Amino acid sequence: MVTLKKSLNLLAAVIFTASSVFSYAQSNAQTLGESVQETEQSLGETINAAEVADHEHEAEAEHVAGEKSQAEKVQDHITHHLADDYSFIFFSDEETGKHYGFSLPVILIDNGLKVFMSSEFDYGNKVVEKDGQHYKLYHGKIYKTDAEGTISYDVAHHPTNEKPLDFSITKNVASLLFTTVLIFLMFLSLAKTYKKGPNNLPKGFARALEPMVLYVRDEMAVPNIGKDKYKKFMPYLLSVFFLIFLLNLLGLTPLGFNVTGSISVTACLAIFTFIITQFSANKDYWKHMFWMPGVPVPMKIMLAPIEILGALIKPFSLMVRLFANITAGHSVVFGLIAIIFVMKEALGTAGAVGIGFFLSTFLVILEILVAFLQAFIFTMLSSLFIGMAVAEHEHDEAHH
């Protein structure tokens, strides 16, 4: 903004000066004197405007170096929620700088095993020393440093410090472990009911799970894979569906879960689908991929790379779709909640709270539907890809 003001002022001075020179060639000395006087006045105004702009630039620089604005604080909070971390932070006290939550174990392999709690980093304010090695938490990653915690940078201002092998229990890992245990507890009672007899009715919370299990079986597995082969893949499909669904629901709570909004987690789930699909494929699947029957030989040569590329694009689409939708949903929810803080001066406390509460509540209800929808889409497409790989194809002689 400051640069733009300077440019406009300079352009105005140049245009005015040029017009003065043109007037000089057409007018008498008196007109020249008036033009020069006006030019000097314009240049004086330009210099004053430049000085004001410089003061504004310095004020902006001081603001950046000093305390952050409310909008910047909100943006930092959203970024922190979406990113993985070495501790759970529920809320913070800005006046005292104290964070309320709990730390997680840090597990490093660097000339031996080093285990300690992330609280020793004091959220990046302290350097941790273990067995003569020093470590610093910087922008969500652990680097090896000296005793002062010096971070070196390259030309692009990226840290060049060495990083140890990190097997820490981060926020995403802890969330996955918690959800896994929760799924086991949920289905143990349902499994016990079926062991007693196939016609026994589930009781308690297991009664709510049975319709969802039947939904995955009857609406996804059987139609896409077939009645003869669907049972083999039901454990994976049920695991993926309930894992994504529960993680999405927990992501709407104040616990700070954003597991399915991590590209590494969605990539891992997509890779599992890809591996199961390829290792379960029959000869017809590979034949249609590398040497499609019933097609002229030149077309077969052209279609083979396209089919191979399509097989790789399928898991990529699974990964990006889940990651992008969940990340966008969380960002929008936090953005609407931020109205309470950012628009408090313009709308008043009551108005900002009312609008923020109404919009965020409506979107959270919508996100519950999206949580189920994303689990459904991932599981449906996984069953469809598996069904395409295990399907038996009958070829007539005419095709050959």
Q: Could you explain how this protein is built, in words?
A:
This protein is mainly α and 400 residues long. It is 64% helix and 10% strand. It has eleven helices and eight strands. It has helices at residues 2-26, 29-65, 70-82, 171-196, 206-225, 234-250, 263-280, 283-290, 297-337, 339-342, 344-390; strands spanning 87-93, 98-103, 105-109, 113-117, 127-130, 133-138, 141-145, 165-166. The longest helix has 47 residues, at 344-390.
SSE pattern, N- to C-terminal: HHHEEEEEEEEHHHHHHHH
* Principal-axes shape call: globular
Beta content: 5-15%
Order the strands across the largest sheet as they lie in space. Answer: 4-3-8
The percentage helix is 55-70%
Structural class by sheet pairing and helices: mainly alpha
Low-confidence stretches: 1-40, 46-66, 396-400
Radius of gyration from CA coordinates = 32 Å
* Strand elements, count: 8
Which sheet architecture does the biggest sheet show? Answer: 3 strands, antiparallel
Please report the number of helical segments. Answer: 11
Mean pLDDT: 76
Instruction: Give the termini separation.
Output: 70 Å
Task: Give a brief rundown of this model.
64% of the residues lie in helices and 10% in strands. By secondary structure, it is mainly alpha-helical.
What's the arrangement of secondary structure elements?
Layout (H helix, E strand, L loop, with lengths): L1 H25 L2 H37 L4 H13 L4 E7 L4 E6 L1 E5 L3 E5 L9 E4 L2 E6 L2 E5 L19 E2 L4 H26 L9 H20 L8 H17 L12 H18 L2 H8 L6 H41 L1 H4 L1 H47 L10
Antiparallel strand pairs: 1-2, 3-4, 3-8, 5-6, 6-7
Helix pairs in contact: 1-2, 3-9, 4-5, 4-6, 5-6, 5-11, 6-11, 7-9, 7-11, 9-11
